[in-house]
Design the sequence.
């Protein structure tokens, strides 16, 4: 490696840090000088205080448990059905040509417009959010599973076959490892879509959960408290993103 | 042909299951059979209030999409065209993209009010990301050898932009537009479902509060069909402007 890219990297790192410092400083001065009403944008100190208050509230653990429980059920459902449906469709060329475009078209529908029917059907409890989150996560998993298994290099399959691999060996040793990166990408997209749609469902109609707390704080004009909850959710999303990136980097052969 | 008839048959089977389930197995307050839903569509859209609501939603979608495309390209060009800005700004864009936007929806309502502007802003905030990411990726995928080659053959700056950079930008833009269209629609619908005084979201809320499953499903079905058609239209455009890229591989 030459010196040139290193110098460039540190320069862009400096620009990035400067950007965030500027944003924070701007936030601080604008709210500190009362240029903006705290009703519209509370200062960083006020938000930090609210996070402290939320952390001590007895409802936080319950809300986290509620949202995460809903998420785990919805995501598991989507992974199982999406992988199975995707794999079955990928096994025959005819099935792929019939169902891949159908699934891709359905994926364009904003599923959230069906949420009122889910509420009619499942009530305002966790079941309606499970239905919404699972549907949102199903499509990326199914579509990427199809893409992953149909795009396996034919020469790999031919080579394994000619060396006498049976169906099971072919699946475990060739098809799954070759399809894995694309399937994993689908599962990652699905994870984010599932989490966001469950939060959305909780914000539109629910009595519990983190989404409900955000929506309620917003409706009561307690913007500081709302920012507090938003910060917690965003930090959780970032932490998760980092975790998955690290896992993916580990899986990828060097 | 065989593929197409199998697709039609699959949809027919789904509709049949829905019809049978709705007619004999499920409380009609919750679901309505497709025969009734489709029959209800003309009367529903004959209602001037509903027709106006659909119009409102589509104006919101169109304005939000236009803002997303223009603003997305305006940000993507300076970020993509220089290596320094790319390395500095791209991680920031990705970081902001990782925020679940739905959590800040109440802020949009607070800043832009209950009417269409908050829906437009929220929709545009969804659509801008696929545009930015795809246009930037498009510019970054220009092969350096083409630039060197053009320069060595004496191409002017304008010719390089017009002949080499622009095709990549357009291919990225149209790939981004399809995703942007679907997430902009999602953003507009989310904002309408959260709180609204007009638009499709308002009527879906109203029909579900009145347990009017037939009209609710009729409205949603029309919206879903429109979403699929819009997606198909943008996909055709994408194929048209990205064709040379696939041929190159």
Sequence:
């Amino acid at each position: 490696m030459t010196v040139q890219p290193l110098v460039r990297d540190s320069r862009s790192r400096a620009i990035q840090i400067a950007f965030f410092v500027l944003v924070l400083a701007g936030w601080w001065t604008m709210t500190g000088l009362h240029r903006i009403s705290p009703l519209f944008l509370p200062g960083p100190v006020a938000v930090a205080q609210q996070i402290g208050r939320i952390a001590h509230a007895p409802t936080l653990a319950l809300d986290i448990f509620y949202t995460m429980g809903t998420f785990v059920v919805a995501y598991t459902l989507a992974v199982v059905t999406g992988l199975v449906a995707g794999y079955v469709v990928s096994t025959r060329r005819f099935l792929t040509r019939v169902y891949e475009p159908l699934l891709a078209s359905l994926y364009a529908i904003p599923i959230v417009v069906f949420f009122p029917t889910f509420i009619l059907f499942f009530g305002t409890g966790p079941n309606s959010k499970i239905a919404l989150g699972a549907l949102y996560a199903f499509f990326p998993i199914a579509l990427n599973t199809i893409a992953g298994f149909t795009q396996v290099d034919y020469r790999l399959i031919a080579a394994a076959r000619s060396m006498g691999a049976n169906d099971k060996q072919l699946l475990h040793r060739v098809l799954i490892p070759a399809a894995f990166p694309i399937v994993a990408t689908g599962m990652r997209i699905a994870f984010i879509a599932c989490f966001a749609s469950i939060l959305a469902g909780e914000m539109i109609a629910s009595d519990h959960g983190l989404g409900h707390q955000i929506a309620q704080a917003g409706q009561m004009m307690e913007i500081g408290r709302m920012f507090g909850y938003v910060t917690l959710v965003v930090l959780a999303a970032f932490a998760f993103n980092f975790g998955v990136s690290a896992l993916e980097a580990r899986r990828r052969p060097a | 042909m065989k593929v197409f008839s199998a697709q039609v048959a699959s949809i027919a089977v789904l509709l049949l299951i829905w019809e049978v389930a709705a007619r004999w197995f499920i409380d009609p307050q919750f679901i309505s059979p497709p025969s009734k839903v489709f029959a209800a569509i003309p009367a529903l859209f004959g209602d001037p209030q509903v027709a106006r609501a659909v119009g409102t939603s589509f104006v919101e979608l169109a304005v939000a999409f236009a803002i997303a495309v223009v603003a997305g390209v305006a940000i993507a060009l300076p970020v993509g065209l220089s290596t320094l800005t790319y390395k500095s700004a791209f991680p920031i864009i990705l970081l902001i993209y990782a925020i679940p936007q739905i959590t800040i929806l109440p802020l949009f309502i607070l800043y832009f009010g209950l009417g269409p502007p908050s829906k437009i802003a929220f929709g545009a905030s969804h659509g801008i990301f696929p545009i930015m990411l795809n246009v930037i990726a498009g510019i970054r995928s220009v092969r350096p050898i083409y630039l060197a080659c053009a320069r060595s053959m004496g191409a002017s700056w304008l010719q390089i932009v017009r002949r080499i950079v622009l095709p990549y930008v357009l291919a990225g833009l149209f790939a981004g537009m399809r995703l942007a269209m679907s997430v902009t629609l999602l953003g507009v619908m989310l904002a309408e479902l959260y709180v609204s005084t007009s638009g499709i979201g308002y009527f879906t809320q109203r029909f579900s509060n009145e347990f009017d499953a037939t009209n609710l499903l009729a409205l949603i079905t029309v919206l879903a069909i429109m979403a699929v058609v819009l997606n198909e239209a943008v996909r055709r455009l994408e194929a048209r402007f990205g064709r040379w890229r696939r041929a190159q591989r």
User: Anything to note?
Assistant: Residues 157-194 of chain B form the longest helix (38 residues). Chain B touches chain A through 55 residues (CB under 8 Å).
